[in-house]
Amino acid sequence: MKTKTVVIVNPISGVGKQKKIETLLRENLNQDLFDYTVRYTEHIHHGTDIAREAVDQGCDCVVAVGGDGSVNDVAQGLKDTGVTMGIIPCGSGNGLARGLKIPLTPASAIKLLNQRNEHLIDSIVINDKYISVNAAGVGFDAYIARLMKAAKTRGFAAYTNLILREYASYKNNTYCLTIDGRTIERSAWFIAVANGRQFGYNLSVAPKANLSDGLIDISIIDKIPLDHILITAPMAFMNLLDHSQHVETFRAKDILIEGNVHKWVNIDGEGENLGNTLHFVNHPNSVKIFGRK
Questions:
Q1: Which of 187, 189, 160 has its CA nearest to residue 176?
Q2: How far is CA 43 from CA 11, 12, 40, 46, 51, in A?
Q3: Collapsing DSSP states into helix, strand and coil, what is residue 158?
């Protein structure tokens, strides 16, 4: 039986790989396995609305074509429905796609869909409103996500330039964290709350994270002195950040963070204003997805 599928394309995502998607689908998606239609998003979070419509119409699969924000929108509409999500990465960071070993070349990602290799992964519900399927955070990374949201250009170069521009002026903030009932206070440059290992670009913030273990990985990161950056930065790209003296890690099912003075949160690469207090809860096996683990 064919898999009834809706392909949701963000026409302005990332670095423009999505512009030839209909041709790539015709050339690479197995037409004997998939009966698909293509929809284009027209406004912010439109992907969530389209995904929910697809569920109501009895679809078996919804494929997100875009970056991490587009993937998050689709996941938001599919959580706990049993409908499978696919990913054709066309963004810049592509954090969840990398975590699921999905090729970053759209044609190869489409061919992987033909294997229909399903997995269940966890999601993190934030303030009973949003979900993160990959990684969220507060502090400096949320500040950068906020700036990226307003930026005219995307991609690794734009992301790196923002970090270099804002690094010196951004200071630590004091946070109160309640981690599975245990309360601690920390001064942090940023705090990563992760389901997957990386934000994207192969930049690992939670080296021991597992997408399906029922736990949230927390990395509390102090501001790294300039003379330590040349040592610490490679550790992040080598999945060894937890070995740094500037990083403290925890694992839990439920985290409350108070003291988010800037109110912004990085949710799968997109900045959202959710207020001073943030509640993160793991929802095990809540998203069905095509990929490799």
A1: 187
A2: 10, 10, 10, 5, 14
A3: helix
Beta bridge partners of 163: none
Contact 68, 35 (CB under 8 A): no
CB-CB contact of 5 with 60 (8 Å): yes
Cα separation, 205 vs 122, in Å, equals 17
**Pairing mode, if any, of strands 84-89 and 254-258?**
unpaired
pTM above 0.90, yes or no: yes
> Please, are residues 258 and 277 in contact by the beta-carbon 8 Å criterion?
yes
Single-letter amino acid, residue 101: K
Count the residues in the chain: 293
Q: What beta strand segments (E) does the chain contain?
A: 3-9, 34-40, 61-66, 84-89, 118-126, 130-132, 135-139, 173-179, 182-188, 190-194, 198-200, 203-204, 216-221, 247-252, 254-258, 264-267, 270-273, 277-290
Q: pLDDT at residue 45 above 80?
A: yes
* Percentage of residues in the chain having pLDDT higher than 70: 97
Q: Is the dihedral of CA 67, 203, 136, 54 positive or negative?
A: positive
Specify whether the CB–CB gap between 84 and 61 falls below 8 A. yes
Q: What is the pLDDT of residues 88-119, one digit of tens each?
A: 999 888 999 999 999 999 999 999 999 999 99
